[in-house]
Amino acid sequence: MIIAEFEKSAENFVGFNISGHANYADYGKDIVCAAVSSALQMVTNGLTEILKLRCKIKKDENNIALKIIANNKTDALKSGYAFIESFYLHLKLLAKNYKRTIKVIILEV
After folding, report:
1. Which pLDDT band, with edges at 50, 70 and 90, does 61 fall under?
2. Mean pLDDT of all residues in the chain?
3. What's the CATH code, domain 2-108?
4. Which residue from 19, 11, 57 is spatially nearest to 37, judged by alpha carbons?
């Protein structure tokens, strides 16, 4: 199962931690893992390459964590929060459609 933990501070999604495997199908054929990986790459690139936000990113074999660093430009920061919230909504929909493959959690920080 993929565990997706989203950090929320007040009304803003400020980071996430994604770990595990969906185990929906064999390695290389798992459409749930592919969907999560693709969305994860999109949101990470959107935050760092498009919005140019400074983020703390920690990655290992089965886990990636990202948190927006608070002292970024205010206008880009709001867009960054929206990017992460969109990622959250995407994973909630995948979890609903592919039960027992993804667990989505919100952590208040």
Report:
1. confident
2. 94
3. 3.30.70.1490
4. 19
